[in-house]
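Schema walk-through. Below, the input block comes first and the output block second. Nothing else is stored per chain. Lengths vary across the set, and this one has 93 residues.
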Amino acid sequence: MRETTEVAVRGGTGLLAEDACLHNACVRIKRAAVITERYRGMLGDLPGPCLSGISNRMNGVIKLFAAVSALPIPINLTAVVYGMVFLRMPGLC
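--- output ---
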């Protein structure tokens, strides 16, 4: 939209250059376009902190799951060793 108004103001027809009211309208449209782009950029940055907080919480949950899942490993290893068929039971003889 900004490019269109710039072409209309500077364009080869010269119609808008003579009319001050239309020229002022074009200038205001350009300013509104700049402000809109600025706010769009600011709104584009808003999800970042929210996603960062969610990621930090998810990392904490994954750490908890890893710790809880590591607890039964020694029990499983003990059950594997003593569950095998031996002629002599390790640790008892």
